[in-house]
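Appendix B, Record 12. Input sequence as logged:
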Amino acid sequence: MNPTTLGADLGAFGTQLATWAATALPNLVMSVVLLVAGWWLAGWAERTLHRLLDGQMRIDATLRSVIASLTRYVILILVLVAALGQLGIQTTSVLAALGAIGLAIGLALQGTLADVAAGMMLLWLRPFKVGDYIEAGGIAGTLREVGIFASELHTWDGIFQFVPNAELWNKRLVNYSRLPNRLVDIQFGIAYDNSIATARDTLMAVAASDARVHREPDPQVFVAELGDSAVVLGLRVWTDTSEYWTVRRALTEQGKLALEKAGLTIPFPQRDVHYRNAPAAGGQQRSPAEAFS
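Logged structural output:
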């Protein structure tokens, strides 16, 4: 290769590279700056929106985190399109490419899209809100956050659960906190020779002495069952949902103490066994030990 020709080619390449750098490098730097600034702006907008929405009592707490997250994703998409446009790429082509990529990702992640759709339906119908204790498909806990893809639940014994939204949407859901009042149903057993009227008056007095028990509907005491070794009495009272477990534990303890103080017996399960001396061979009576052998 001729050194003169090689030098001319290198010179032409260097000139072209310098020309490209003079025009493209500023755009590249600007794109990087846009991406960094957009990433920071998206995070700042999400945090700020969280704080603003927390002070708005008119907006349900369940929707606040979703609105903040969607705002962040929208900002990131807009920044990405702007950065690509700064590099000279047509935004229409970018949007078409994003649509194609979104379609491919949607086909590959059908389960994830089902979670998104379930999350949207849960937010639309709102069968629960943040702070409710729910149960669905064997999963139970206090709802802490409803996300786009999954929800966060905390169990009563301090266990974190990250549940896909489809698991909550496609199952029978029970909300223990939705209604303001709950029925407390407790059963007590007394001996068959005890007075049912005395037991009823005693349990009614226990219910009346607790200020957390509602007076309407009236507390009830009734014979729920004639068991094998006890007459089972049912005590039913209504209370605030937030007081359910406190009232239930208190009435269980106070009911037992009051029945004992009234001279009533809470019997243990018992069984009477009867046996007969069957005649042995030759007409003789067998002993009890032989009768059971």
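The chain has eight helices and eight strands.
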